[in-house]
Amino acid sequence: HTLSEVLFCQPDAPALGLALAFDSDQLFWFDFPMSRWTPRLPELPPWPPALETPAQLLQDASFCQQLRRGLTALATGQMPESRGVPVAAVFPREPPVLGEPNTLVCLVENIFPPAVSVGWRLHGVPVTRGVTHTHDTPTPDLAFVRFSYLAVTPAAGDVYSCVVTREGDNSSVVAYW
């Protein structure tokens, strides 16, 4: 088994991220603006406050940002920037039955850097109601994965799409259901 704590900092939003994962399943995410750990699942117990205090994590984040700025200055023009091409898949949480509530899941893999937005569309029209997202979760291959969920009641002829957009690149990946 592998327990990993991954801190990242980057010029793109989110500028800071910290995730605690067990065997690639995210357990906690540190919310830097609120200075608190948030569990990935509501049934997880709260983070023990004495393990890593927000003040300690903010020092780590400050160091990360200083290191990123220094390495960026050294590497710009010397090394190509690494970027993964996101891969998206859409599937229902339960076997679909027309007219019965369900949840569509959009799995987005190979995210690097972790700076993408995920949106939903029904027949090409943006949908925001009933949408929830996870934070970026680190994977063993040094990329990230994210889930997005859409509460639906499928009807005949419905075409749903999950649109993954990389900020700044003006590029999108689309998966249909």
Automatic annotation (TrEMBL):
It is found in: Membrane. One of its GO terms (biological process) is antigen processing and presentation. InterPro entries: Ig-like_dom, Ig-like_dom_sf, Ig-like_fold, Ig_C1-set, MHC/Immunoglobulin, MHC_I/II-like_Ag-recog, MHC_II_a/b_N. It is a single-pass type I membrane protein. It holds the Pfam family C1-set. Residues 80-174 form the Ig-like domain. PROSITE patterns: IG_LIKE. One of its GO terms (cellular component) is MHC class II protein complex. Gene3D superfamilies: Class II Histocompatibility Antigen, M Beta Chain, Chain B, domain 1 (3.10.320.10), Immunoglobulins (2.60.40.10). The keyword Transmembrane helix applies. Signal peptide: none annotated. SUPFAM superfamilies: Immunoglobulin (SSF48726), MHC antigen-recognition domain (SSF54452). It comes from the Eukaryota. Keywords: Glycoprotein, Membrane, Transmembrane, Transmembrane helix. PANTHER family: HLA CLASS II HISTOCOMPATIBILITY ANTIGEN, DM ALPHA CHAIN, MHC CLASS II-RELATED. This is DMA protein. It comes from Columbina picui (Picui ground-dove).
